[in-house]
Amino acid sequence: MEGFAQMNLETTKISLAEQCYEHIRKLILDGEIEAGSRFNEKELIERVGFGRTPVREALARLDMEGIIQTMPRAGYVLSKIDLAAIEDHFLVWRFVGPKIVRKAAENITEDEKSLLERYSRDMYAGTELDEWLRVSAIIFDILTEATQSPNLTYINRRLSCQMHRIYGLYFRSEHGERWLRDQSDFFLRGDWTADPELAELQMKAAIRHAYIEIREMIAAAED
User: What's in the keyword line of the UniProt record (predicted)?
Assistant: First the structure.
């Protein structure tokens, strides 16, 4: 009985920390916490309505993901999307993204493929930035699930918040909108699963293309 109670307590603790993380993450992605702004633990506890422990755990996770920076005795600051952040993100994503597509091409089920094509059609037809971001995140969640790889699922989850912020800037541009529609078309063609190695190479080229354009866009903004 004692062991069962301890297990329930631990499950609740993890659940609260996850809920708190998602809440703070949404505030960041919705722009309610601005890049470069400072905040402290007490302010965030009052804002999100969670206790000190789940807030502290959520902040530690966001710090580990590079979304926020811990300032000793000065609280936290939401990291800016600058050239250094772009380099850090794509250093990992240029390898992980293509690998997810390859493993998905090897293992995807017909149900997953149908779902992927449905959301790709939604993304292709969409016109609103928030909808593009929401659907693109769902598409990569489907792909990651299809890989059947816990490691790739974990890495994708770790990168997803920063990726959402970076691509949110990119999709506001004409280049980003065109890139988005090209990727929708890639999954709508349906033949990407026939040759997993080719699918990996095509995604690698697409991510490289996005990286170059995003880097140029951020560099121009910093000048």
Answer: DNA-binding, Transcription, Transcription regulation
